[in-house]
Write a sequence for this structure.
């Protein structure tokens, strides 16, 4: 079922993209939409204040194992997105996904296959696929 949703999304994006079909336009639109996601997150901190960034150096004890390190690493975020910020950021992420999917269509790549391949890679490598 989920593969159908991804496939339908990719097909719908292909049908709806009329302007900006050039790969150059798509790359810049994708980059711009990623910047808008970042800007939305920053605005939730600086203008709305629903979340707060409390960043500091990530540290963990020498000799700590993977599971221990995973529990010690922090997001540096305090609070939760308000409904308005959540809606705006979700919309920006959706637009970013639209342009990513448009790039896939232009390059004749299947988004579902890409997701499955990446999922298999991270499953296979497990904790050795740290990012």
């Amino acid at each position: 079922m989920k593969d159908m949703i991804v496939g339908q999304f990719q097909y719908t994006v292909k049908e709806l993209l009329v302007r900006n079909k050039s790969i150059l336009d798509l790359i810049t639109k994708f980059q711009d939409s990623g910047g808008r996601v970042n800007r939305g997150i920053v605005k939730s901190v600086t203008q709305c204040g629903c979340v707060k960034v409390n960043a500091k150096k990530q540290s963990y004890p020498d000799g700590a194992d993977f599971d221990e390190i995973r529990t010690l690493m922090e997001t540096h975020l305090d609070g939760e997105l308000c409904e308005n910020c959540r809606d705006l950021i979700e919309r920006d992420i959706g637009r970013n996904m639209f342009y990513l999917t448009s790039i896939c269509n232009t390059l004749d790549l299947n988004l579902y296959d890409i997701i499955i391949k990446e999922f298999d890679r991270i499953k296979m490598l497990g904790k050795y696929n740290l990012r």
In short: The chain has five helices and two strands. Helices lie at 2-16, 23-48, 66-72, 83-106, 111-125.
